């Protein structure tokens, strides 16, 4: 994610910690070593996955935030930095819980 977003994203993880219906995963197109170096000075509480081939699946534009409902419907697909990202993702999680897959936010 954009370094500026990390504190807000960490806050969202703290807020929703313990909710069995929510998982936060960050997928980085870096090697594990490079990702560990980056995170050494920037605590980020998402589960971290390093995959140099991630761009083949997710494209070359980062950060990218995707919220997927339990039924597999993408409720939010935010590409790029966004002021207020935690508020937007919180709303997307609420929409996913409500089964609002038809209200896709892109």
Index terms:
alpha+beta, 4 strands, two-stranded parallel ribbon, single chain, two-stranded antiparallel sheet, 106 residues
Kindly describe this structure.
By secondary structure, this protein is α+β, with helices and mostly antiparallel strands. Helices cover 36% and strands 18% of the residues. The chain is globular and about 40 Å long.
Low-confidence residue ranges: 102-106
Share of helical residues: 25-40%
Identify the overall geometry: globular
Mean pLDDT: 85
Written as H for each helix and E for each strand, in order along the chain, the element string is HEHEHEEH
> Order of strands across the biggest sheet?
1-2
- Report the radius of gyration as a whole number of Å: 14 Å
Structural class: alpha+beta
Number of strands: 4
User: Hey, roughly how much beta strand do the residues contain?
Assistant: 15-25%
Multimerization status = single chain
Main sheet summary: 2 strands, parallel
In whole angstroms, the N-to-C terminal distance is 17 Å
Number of helices: 4
């Amino acid at each position: 994610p954009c370094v500026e977003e990390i504190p807000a994203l960490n806050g969202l993880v703290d807020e929703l910690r313990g909710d069995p219906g929510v998982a936060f995963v960050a997928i980085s197109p870096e090697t594990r070593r490079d990702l560990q170096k980056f995170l050494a000075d920037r605590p980020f509480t998402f589960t971290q996955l390093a995959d140099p081939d991630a761009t083949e699946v997710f494209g070359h534009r980062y950060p990218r935030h995707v919220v997927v409902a339990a039924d597999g419907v993408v409720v939010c697909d935010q590409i790029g930095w966004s002021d207020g990202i935690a508020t937007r993702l919180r709303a997307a999680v609420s929409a996913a819980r409500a089964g609002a897959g038809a209200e896709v936010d892109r």
